[in-house]
């Protein structure tokens, strides 16, 4: 019983010591800004930064392509379905019959 208490105490002290050491080497800064641009104290390399318009246009292109793929998939599902009697029913979850 006494050896369990000693090992438990040693484990707790070791864990506390590791936490104290890890907090000593940790550093962080929170910057509040109106947009996603870096703050005035950031270390930015101008040749590595992507213009915001370029990133926005790439994102918009990806969204448009995903919409087109989704529409094509939906059309193929509707075409392969065969019965157009229930046009308001859900495509992905057909109605239960029993």
Automatic annotation (TrEMBL):
CC annotations in GO: extracellular region
Gene Ontology terms for molecular function: hormone activity
GO biological process, one term: neuropeptide signaling pathway
Signal peptide: 1-28
Entry annotated with the keyword Secreted: yes
Positions of region (Disordered): 79-98
Annotated compartments: Secreted
Keywords for the protein's UniProt record, in alphabetical order: Hormone, Neuropeptide, Secreted, Signal
Pfam (any one): Adipokin_hormo
Family: Belongs to the AKH/HRTH/RPCH family.
Protein name: Adipokinetic hormone-corazonin-like peptide
Organism phylogeny: Eukaryota, Metazoa, Ecdysozoa, Arthropoda, Hexapoda
């Amino acid at each position: 019983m006494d050896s369990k208490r000693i090992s438990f105490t040693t484990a707790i002290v070791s864990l506390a010591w590791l936490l104290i050491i890890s907090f000593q080497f940790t550093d962080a800064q929170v910057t509040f800004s109106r947009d996603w641009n870096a703050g005035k104290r950031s270390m930015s390399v101008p040749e590595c930064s992507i213009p915001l318009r370029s990133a926005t246009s790439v994102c918009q292109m990806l969204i448009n392509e995903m919409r087109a793929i989704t529409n094509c998939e939906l059309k193929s599902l509707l075409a392969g379905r065969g019965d157009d009697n229930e046009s308001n029913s859900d495509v992905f979850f057909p109605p239960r019959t029993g």
